[in-house]
Amino acid sequence: MSTTTQPATILDAITADEATGRPIPDAATRETIAYAPVHTVADLDAAVAAARAAQPAWAALGHGERSRILNAIADEIEANAEELAVLLSREQGKPLDGPNARFEVGACAAWTRNAADTVVEPEVVFEDGAARAELHYEPLGVVGAIGPWNWPMMISVWQIAPSLRMGNTVVVKPSEYTPLSVLALAEVFNRHLPEGVLTVIAGDREVGAAIAAHPGLDKIMFTGSTATGRRIVESSAQNLARLTLELGGNDAGIVLPDTDVSAIAENLFWGCFINTGQTCASLKRLYVHDSVYDEVVDALAGMARTMPMGRGLDAGNVLGPVQNEKQFDVVRRLVDDARNRGARVVAGGEPAPELGPLFYRATVVADIDDGAALVDEEQFGPVIPVIRYTDVDDAVARANASEQGLGASVWSNDPDEAVAVARRIQAGTVWINQHGALNPNIPFGGTKGSGYGHEFGIHGLKAVSAPKVISR
Fold it and tell me: Is 2 exposed, middle or buried (0-12, 13-18, 19+ CB in 10 A)?
């Protein structure tokens, strides 16, 4: 009688050996956590073939059984939450505490349950007594999902859970910076899924490019840069795969005149600095009316100087490192350029090498204007430029001048005035007195160079479905 030794941890189950794998560093210390498998285009082809073979049986289970399985997966995520959060914290860098690693794992369970429990019914689109037309939502087939490194588990769930619920199978390509987190998440999912329904391919950019053009995929979901999104659009023309693209954002916030700064300060800070500023829909440039400008700058700077930053596994820290060297260099370049232009660095403005190689102090930059690289480019790090304005119409025009339009926010004591300004801003979501707050029932997606298509709730389920009209 033979026996099989079960892996002691999720990490043990997903890692390759040193000889064949790629070392993945701890974001804070740069020490090797483990070795990720190195998959190839041939592995991708095999995964797509397996997914296509598994898809008819998975679809045939029906909504009820697929929903039951997804709820069981949500239970499994919660049962393994701390192990998943620790791995995520080490690989991505976000602390366990605050709106960070434990929060992200909890969101994975919540979004999986939402995908399971959202009701999808045929829609009667025409009926006159003699004729009736219904709109049904059928599986597309195989979904290719390409994810980012900033919220690797949560954004993967946004792609995976709705696709599975609607009867599709999924092949996921995680970021090269955070493959372990997504492999671990898939390991938990696959404890409840038939073979071939969900596969992670931890490959390089060549594999990512092959996904975009793969003839065996019916849908591509991508979260990442606008430049890469454009390449995916071009590649997908060969197979006419449907697309959901959540691309970069240079989100603007507008603080209206005479706003109570003390009432908004905490939400304003986290709108800028959640995940140490490494969030597509975080606040990247803040336009503040002259009447409250100095007060807003002082409030943000005071919080930036005192917010605990350090290694994610150390209790109490709520800000972590920049996840990788390439992005660290972007942050440092943009702040140095702003300083050289004469902008005033009120807090931070330099690395924090005593904390680790890629830590950069939470930074508030004042007396800066449009045209500076820090304002015009997406910094994707712990930095916020604060721009003074005197005319609201001018602030709206400057907010809209960006190529990107993912999110935006308006801050005011007057809700009616805030909504009136929000309606004039070109963005997929405009928040009032908050920024970046997401809800699994509320559709989310960008405009302009920030992509197209919606995720979450019933809109997200329909986006991973093939609409079919049945007329009689």
Answer: exposed
